[in-house]
Write a structure and sequence with these properties.
The protein is α/β, with parallel strands linked by helices and about 150 residues long. The protein is built from 7 helices and 5 strands.
């Protein structure tokens, strides 16, 4: 898995993306937007059944992203940076993962505190609850910015 994830992470960088999702070698979704917004956007745009069994390639995976990845029933995750809490969530739900670096927590954009989305999900381990909490918070302050590959 490490070799295939390294190739997928290289593709993420080469394309200037923050996240992409593929299934059966087909690109389902990609985004250049930072943060949790792309995962929330893909959930709203694409039927969950189409996302089930997919591979998520994301620059940063914290607990919030991991819970959304469980929510879409992804098969595996490749990331550049992952929190220990995210790894624990993925392990619990038997989702294969690889990360170039593992950290204690995901920091906010200026590095002064824990990521606000990580704080939002700190008291839940339930993917549906996390999705509803994150959607309510993120979509009230940001607009979606990703697109299916054929838009």
């Amino acid at each position: 898995m490490k070799r295939s994830c390294l190739a997928l992470l290289k593709m993420l960088d080469d394309e200037g993306l923050s996240l992409f999702i593929s299934k059966n070698s087909d690109l389902i979704y990609s985004s250049k937007m930072a943060g949790i917004t792309p995962l929330l956007d893909v959930i709203d745009r694409i039927e969950l059944v189409s996302l089930s069994g997919s591979t998520v390639v994301d620059k940063v995976v914290g607990k919030a992203a991991a819970l959304l990845i469980v929510y879409i029933s992804a098969l595996r995750v490749c990331s550049k940076l992952m929190s220990r809490a995210a790894a624990k969530v993925l392990e619990k739900h038997s989702i294969d993962f690889f990360s170039l670096e593992t950290v204690d927590f995901i920091a906010n954009r200026d590095g002064s505190d824990v990521c606000p989305f990580e704080k939002i999900v700190s008291r839940t381990d339930e993917p549906t609850e996390a999705y509803l909490l994150l959607k309510k918070t993120a979509l009230s302050s940001q607009s979606p910015g990703g697109s299916p590959p054929n838009d």
